[in-house]
Amino acid sequence: MGELVRLEVADGVGTIRLDRPKMNAISAQLQDELRECAEEATARDDVAAVVVYGGERVFAAGADIKEMADLSFPQMNVRAQALQAALNAVAAIPKPTVSAITGYALGGGCELALCTDVRFAADNAKLGQPEILLGIIPGAGGTQRLARLVGPAKAKDLMFTGRQVDAAEALTIGLVDRVVPAASVYEEALAWARQFVGAASLALRGIKEAVDRGLEVDLVTGLEIERHLFAALFATEDQATGMRSFIESGPGKATFEGK
């Protein structure tokens, strides 16, 4: 259990909870604890899906600028590697993940949200990559993940200007996937995650791997990745269970064991 980030597990869903008042600024300690929680969520068999949540008031307002302002190039090079490793660990969780975004998700906070499979935003949320206003660029995946999500033109506009977008615009450009009242964003994210408890976890892992790896390669190579993962699932008990259940009882009746 970390001091600034903790993994809470209930009914098969893990919540990675940032808790560094007031703004969940991403310090070196927070990033290290975030990586540890992501790795724990990956390893735990009782976690079927994961919600990333910053609390009722703010998701994460960005990096701890006071902590990094006076770092030298060699120091920042090491810090940037650790920061990317922390967020990469979230992106690599081989289970469905969702960000429940309240208040601000800026800079490193927006980059953290980009690491999950989907993003649910409160109607009062503000998202953006304002690093240009500090004379720097996003360094925790923003230039790469944002462009892949919303397209290069929209991503460059957000990063060139450093402007914040509200929840409605974020939904329009595809930066978030659902906008809900602030009071219910966490519950909505939990409800989305709970549907995967008892699902075919190895197939879910295969879908995530095929999509994420496929985005990095050409179509022919992506189809080869898909073919191998598809065929590999025929070595699992879940495949046999699912197909037998379909034949005997129709779709949606199988009970999977994740084996």
Automatic annotation (TrEMBL):
Q: What class of enzyme is it?
A: lyase
Catalytic reaction list: a (3S)-3-hydroxyacyl-CoA = a (2E)-enoyl-CoA + H2O; a 4-saturated-(3S)-3-hydroxyacyl-CoA = a (3E)-enoyl-CoA + H2O
Q: Does the record carry Isomerase as a key word?
A: yes
Q: Which terms does the record give in the GO molecular function aspect? A: enoyl-CoA hydratase activity; isomerase activity
Q: Quote the CDD domains the UniProt record gives.
A: crotonase-like
List the EC numbers from the record: 4.2.1.17
Q: Which GO terms describe its biological process?
A: fatty acid beta-oxidation
Q: In its keyword annotation, does this UniProt entry include Lipid metabolism?
A: yes
Extract the InterPro entries matched here: ClpP/crotonase-like_dom_sf, Enoyl-CoA_hyd/isom_CS, Enoyl-CoA_hydra/iso, Enoyl-CoA_hydra_C
Give the keywords, sorted: Isomerase, Lipid metabolism, Lyase
Q: Give the PANTHER family listed for this entry.
A: (7AS)-7A-METHYL-1,5-DIOXO-2,3,5,6,7,7A-HEXAHYDRO-1H-INDENE-CARBOXYL-COA HYDROLASE (PTHR11941:SF169), ENOYL-COA HYDRATASE-RELATED (PTHR11941)
* The family this protein is said to belong to: Belongs to the enoyl-CoA hydratase/isomerase family.
Q: What is this protein called?
A: enoyl-CoA hydratase
